[in-house]
């Protein structure tokens, strides 16, 4: 906790010396900050200050407190849960890309090899926990109770598992820490950005991967309602939705990060 507090203090100190006209954008290191760095090269006239956010720092709190002007790291269901938790309204400036959630293992080459009473690490935050359970269901490992049909609306917890034929033990872990648990569990459900940071290639390494079509978990550029019409935010949103950035995402991440439709 002390380390997180010191990290946050150092981060806020660095933000205080930002250029007055720079658009301060908080982002996860991979792939979000990398994409923003490409945007900066693509559009030199857009003055960005890209702040890579370490684990344990809530980018939405930074945005709510005015420490940054926008953030780029999350999907809409997570943003909705954050608005409720923080009592704060935010605004979506652009929908940019999808990072398919994946199931990984260091112990097994296929899901069929997972033993009875195997262990499965899943994210412990509400939206990604539910998302993980739907992915396990899509791959035939569990079945959720009737009524859980829409992953973006019907949020599931382990209590909502109706059938668990392999008697899998669900372990809830903080999302950034899950890759480190791969050697200790049979399966791990990992967010795309954390998989990439750990050296995994979702399109190649995942034993089960979310489909891109109809996926409600596209990553978004988020700002405040007050800044939604700021020319800098609007230009960044336009750049992120451009064919050039879509091409960069497609070529750089080889199916592990998927651009949404361009403008």
UniProtKB/TrEMBL annotation:
<comment type="similarity">
    <text>Belongs to the NlpA lipoprotein family.</text>
</comment>
<dbReference type="InterPro" id="IPR004872">
    <property type="entry name" value="Lipoprotein_NlpA"/>
</dbReference>
<keyword id="KW-0449">Lipoprotein</keyword>
<feature type="signal peptide">
    <location>
        <begin position="1"/>
        <end position="19"/>
    </location>
</feature>
<dbReference type="Pfam" id="PF03180">
    <property type="entry name" value="Lipoprotein_9"/>
</dbReference>
<keyword id="KW-0472">Membrane</keyword>
<keyword id="KW-0564">Palmitate</keyword>
<dbReference type="GO" id="GO:0016020">
    <property type="term" value="C:membrane"/>
</dbReference>
<protein>
    <submittedName>
        <fullName>ABC transporter substrate-binding protein</fullName>
    </submittedName>
</protein>
<keyword id="KW-0732">Signal</keyword>
